[in-house]
Design goal:
This protein is of the alpha/beta class and 220 residues long. The chain folds into 2 domains: 2-121, 3-Layer(aba) Sandwich (Rossmann fold), CATH 3.40.50; 135-218, Regulator of K+ conductance, C-terminal domain (Alpha-Beta Plaits, 2-Layer Sandwich), CATH 3.30.70. The protein has helices spanning 10-19, 33-42, 56-61, 77-90, 121-134, 211-218; strands at 2-6, 25-30, 48-50, 69-72, 95-100, 117-120, 139-144, 149-155, 165-166, 176-183, 186-188, 195-196, 201-207. It has a 6-stranded parallel sheet with strand order 3-2-1-4-5-6, with helices on both faces. Strands 7-8-13-10-11 form a 5-stranded antiparallel sheet, with helices on one face. It has a two-stranded antiparallel sheet with strand order 9-12. It is elongated and about 65 Å long. The termini are far apart.
């Protein structure tokens, strides 16, 4: 993919270092002179474009018209919103991702404003902590579909409703599917006849609103 990253701070530089070994073509736009100097030192030649990600001319010079993805990850919400809006509506970039520094601004980062995915570190961390508090031993492994669904892991407790019972005999919540069972280091694809044993590590994809219900079936 052709990827344009607006913002060459810690997030942008790290993102570029992750993408380039995977053979993606990456350009990093950074306006701060000192950061540009560091980026030139840390990233391959031709990666860094000095200037503002909200300047159409700079975006053009970075190859925005051929970009598959724009990720605006500066520490300034206004900059990120303007950059992604320009990418979508002025240059027709198919996929736009924006970092949200202040969770109070999340409401502005919508598809109407040209943002496909808005990522708020503070909001995500707060929600994860609150979720972990309410789910007992269930562990969230991955957030899916803008945080509405999660890949979770729960070990079957000896006193759980699920212990010793077939999957087909259990009533799991809607918007939940068992993805796998890890037993003695082996992955088992669960079927209706699969008996869940105490100590089994169950992997499931579940909607956020149903996670506690699933935890009550598998946990204590």
């Amino acid at each position: 993919m052709n990827v344009i990253i607006v913002g060459g701070g810690k997030v942008g530089a790290h993102l570029a270092s992750l993408l380039q070994p995977r053979q993606h073509r990456v350009k990093v736009i950074e306006v701060r002179v000192e950061e540009v100097r560091h980026l030139h030192h840390d990233l391959p030649d031709g990666t860094v474009v000095a200037g503002s990600g909200t300047d159409p001319a700079i975006l053009e010079s970075a190859g925005i018209r051929d970009a598959d993805v724009m990720a605006a990850v500066t520490g300034d919400d206004e900059t990120n919103l303007v950059a992604t809006s320009l990418a979508r509506f002025e240059f027709g970039v198919p996929r736009t991702i924006a970092r949200v520094k202040d969770p109070r601004h999340e409401w502005m980062f919508t598809e109407i404003m040209g943002v496909d995915v808005a990522l708020s570190q503070a909001s995500l961390m707060a929600h994860l902590i609150a979720e972990e508090m309410s789910l007992g031993s269930m562990m969230t492994l991955l957030k899916l579909s803008k945080g509405e669904f999660s890949l979770v892991e729960e070990k079957v407790h000896p006193a759980a409703r699920a212990a010793g019972r077939k999957v087909a005999d259990l009533v799991f919540p809607e918007e939940c599917i068992l993805a796998g069972v890890i037993r003695d280091g082996r992955l088992i694809i669960p079927h209706g006849s699969t008996v869940l044993r105490p100590g089994d590590e169950v992997l499931a994809v579940v909607h956020a609103s149903r996670a506690e219900e699933l935890a009550s079936i598998l946990g204590k």
